[in-house]
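Run log // design_07
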């Protein structure tokens, strides 16, 4: 028996059909692929801001005819403010596909420009090291094979297992993150010093005065995509995307004054694969109704009497994507939806339980994508922000445009209005503009503007007239004293995070061995950030242009950082001011046949004399820390090196790879150790390998070799924490050597959890791959 592996490798120079200036240096897309084999279909991840994406992503199908395999690949550009655009498609035909041997092809795209590379291979159900699970509903999953068990070494004086839950537990204390990549209008002020927003699958109520967070966590199993606030500022509604297990999408309504409590109500939105997500929501002016838009093909509109837990009506919204909603301030039955080249006015007839709709008439105004609506005054006037940066004024009784004003800047992504403060618009080019508005006719006068410097995705007035601004780079600002009566603005940076705008994944994480209150992260956004775990803020940040960063390590004295990139380059950085001490370019050598050189792991030795890197090209490079020269290369792995650990005395290294192979090395003589008895007295300074004696039972039934991403052991050697592809952080007693050993499980991440470390005996830090968030967990003794 065998199955088909289809590996989407990369594409080059993707240019959508109809582009006029193909040489534009700023021409970028956000491509993802739909892989079709027979009647089966799979979607790839999105690669942001590039015309030459690299996926290296595998998909698995039941094989039909290996003598002739036809694969259809359709590339789309992910659009936030419009319907996803097709970039091109390519048909691949492979003859006589072989077992465990890749066949690769480049094919020119049609209906667009560019080239796409794809590879296929047959796999038997025991390759590499996996067998098909026969457990209940997990037929389509794979289960880890313990072929590596022969390479584990039981240490001398090995500790005994504890067949009970660990005495310690984890409590989520802080989340560093704010989702803006594919959502807007998701940041609200609850009071002068409290705001609400979301990251991963967690709703966050954040006191900006004392920097303390409270969490709504547990009702959503995947990314929260939208958030809205009740008129009384007490209740919050959050909507999510359908999970990988087809759970959801769901809407949860919860109390912002007690977010830790269970939700007041949860609505399950139809069939997950059809509905896809909840894209935007809004409460009626009196707070009785909740209107929700889903991501199905019809962008369906639902209205709920949420306290009665009743769905009152559902109707098709529009054939084009609906991007935002606003509710009439005085008539609870009326609201408006806007989107790709349309505006639609809605009224709910409570007697017949049906919607009455009217199409918005643009008249002489340009027909274009409308991004955000806001009613003013008693609701007779509606203002909408457009893709071209214009403000359209609508008469809501005749449903037509009665005036336009160019804001002077690009797309208007968000608006906020208060009679006493004025109208503010947030723009894609980073400007916030302020207008005085006549509520009776919608006529406007521009008063002032200020440049935030980052694309604005959401904004809201605080009760005292300050503006909370959320940006595409996941940075949150407060603009003080920016009202029509006092437009002298003062911009204050509140929180800075890794960017969720163009980031692909967040992997790099390490603790400062010389300061248990400090840790460092790096990610595909090119940022290295040092964090203060006590003040919950970043201490310093370095942006390395043109690099995707995947691994980072502190030196034992905490004075240096070693950063590894997807390009294979290495940066040695002074941790006090983040100045670059040395840039070490990737070194191409003749014996390396792989075209993938990305660094996956980097570790400095406990004595500080060396550091090592593990790479996609299956090698381990060893460098000294005096002049940063490479002093040797360890070869022997047959797949990507994933994790590394040093011994206490810096004489030994252990490593594992993506094909579940454990190897051991003499770091002095730079040779592989094959006599495993030599390693029994060795004590490992850290334990990060997902394979080995103290972690041999961390795997659950039905899990594959790549399900677990990271392992960390605390310094007291009492606890093990693991992270996985199922968005879990798990806590075990150390060692984990008993079958079905009890553990504590924690949720909140919405993506594969890529890494984890202990900060002394007080904290665990975990990183989310695609959710781009950092979770700080307090260890409760």
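design_07 sequence
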């Amino acid at each position: 028996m065998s199955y088909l592996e289809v590996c989407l490798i990369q594409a080059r120079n993707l240019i959508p059909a109809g582009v006029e200036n193909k040489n534009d240096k700023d021409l970028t897309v956000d491509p993802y692929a739909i892989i079709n084999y027979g009647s089966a279909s799979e979607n790839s991840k999105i690669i942001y801001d590039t015309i030459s994406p690299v996926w290296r992503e595998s998909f698995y199908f039941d094989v039909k005819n290996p003598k002739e395999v036809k694969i259809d690949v359709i590339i789309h550009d992910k659009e936030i403010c419009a319907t996803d655009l097709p970039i091109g498609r390519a048909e691949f035909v492979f003859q006589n596909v072989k077992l465990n041997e890749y066949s690769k092809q480049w094919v020119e795209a049609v209906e667009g420009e560019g080239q796409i590379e794809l590879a296929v291979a047959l796999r038997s159900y025991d390759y590499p090291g996996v067998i098909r699970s026969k457990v209940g509903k997990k037929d389509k999953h794979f289960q880890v094979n313990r072929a590596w068990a022969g390479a584990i070494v039981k240490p001398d004086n090995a500790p005994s297992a504890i067949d009970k839950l660990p005495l310690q537990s984890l409590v989520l204390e802080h989340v560093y993150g704010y989702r803006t990549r594919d959502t807007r209008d998701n940041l609200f002020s609850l009071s002068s010093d409290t705001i609400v927003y979301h990251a991963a699958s967690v709703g966050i109520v954040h006191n900006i005065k004392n920097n303390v967070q409270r969490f709504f966590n547990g009702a959503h199993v995947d990314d929260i995509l939208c958030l809205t606030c009740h008129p009384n500022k007490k209740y919050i509604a959050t909507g999510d995307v359908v999970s990988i297990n087809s759970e959801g999408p769901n809407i949860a309504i919860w109390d912002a004054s007690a977010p830790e409590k269970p939700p007041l109500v949860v609505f399950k939105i139809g069939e997950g694969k059809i509905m896809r997500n909840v894209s935007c929501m809004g409460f009626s002016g009196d707070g009785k109704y909740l209107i929700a838009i889903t991501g199905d093909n019809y962008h369906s509109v639902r209205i709920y009497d949420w306290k009665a837990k009743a769905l009152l009506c559902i109707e098709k919204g529009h054939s084009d994507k609906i991007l935002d909603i606003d509710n009439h301030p005085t008539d609870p039955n009326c609201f408006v939806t806007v989107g790709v080249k349309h505006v639609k006015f809605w009224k709910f007839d409570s007697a017949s339980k049906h919607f009455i709709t009217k199409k918005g008439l643009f008249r002489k105004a340009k027909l274009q994508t409308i991004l955000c609506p806001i009613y003013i005054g008693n609701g007779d006037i509606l203002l909408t922000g457009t893709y071209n940066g214009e403000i359209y004024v609508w008469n809501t009784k005749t449903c037509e445009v009665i005036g336009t004003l160019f804001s002077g800047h690009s797309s208007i992504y968000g608006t906020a209005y208060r009679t006493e403060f004025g109208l503010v618009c947030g723009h894609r080019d980073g400007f916030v503009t302020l207008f005085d508005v006549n509520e009776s006719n919608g006529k406007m006068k521009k008063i002032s503007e200020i440049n935030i410097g980052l694309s604005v995705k959401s904004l809201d007035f605080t009760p005292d007239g300050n503006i909370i601004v959320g940006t595409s780079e996941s940075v949150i600002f407060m603009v003080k004293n920016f009202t029509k009566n006092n437009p002298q603005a003062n911009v204050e940076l509140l929180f800075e995070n890794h960017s969720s705008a163009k980031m692909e994944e967040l992997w790099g994480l390490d603790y400062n061995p010389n300061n248990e209150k400090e840790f460092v992260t790096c990610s595909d956004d090119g940022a290295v950030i040092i964090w203060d775990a006590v003040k919950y803020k970043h201490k310093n940040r370095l942006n390395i242009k043109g690099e995707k960063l995947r691994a980072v390590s502190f030196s034992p004295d905490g004075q240096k950082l070693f950063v590894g990139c997807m390009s294979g380059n290495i940066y040695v950085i002074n941790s006090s001011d983040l100045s670059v001490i040395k840039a070490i370019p990737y070194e191409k050598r003749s014996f390396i046949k792989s075209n993938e050189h990305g660094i996956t792991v980097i570790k400095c030795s406990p004595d500080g004399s060396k550091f090592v890197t593990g790479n996609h090209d299956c090698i381990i490079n060893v460098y000294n820390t005096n002049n940063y020269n490479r002093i040797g290369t360890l070869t022997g792995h047959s797949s990507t090196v994933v994790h590394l650990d040093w011994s206490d005395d810096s004489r030994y290294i252990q490593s594992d790879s993506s094909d579940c192979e454990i190897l051991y090395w003499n770091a002095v003589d730079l040779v592989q150790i094959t006599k495993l008895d030599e390693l029994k007295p060795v004590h490992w300074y850290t334990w990060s390998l997902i394979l080995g004696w103290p972690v041999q039972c961390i795997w659950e039934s039905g899990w594959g070799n790549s399900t677990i991403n990271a392992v960390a052991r605390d310094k007291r050697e009492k606890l093990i924490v693991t992270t996985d592809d199922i968005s879990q952080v798990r806590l075990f007693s150390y060692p984990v050597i008993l079958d079905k050993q009890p553990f504590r499980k924690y949720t909140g991440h919405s993506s594969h959890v890529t890494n984890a470390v202990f900060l002394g005996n007080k904290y665990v830090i975990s990183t989310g791959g695609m959710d781009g968030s950092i979770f700080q967990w307090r260890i409760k003794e």
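The helical segments are 272-275.
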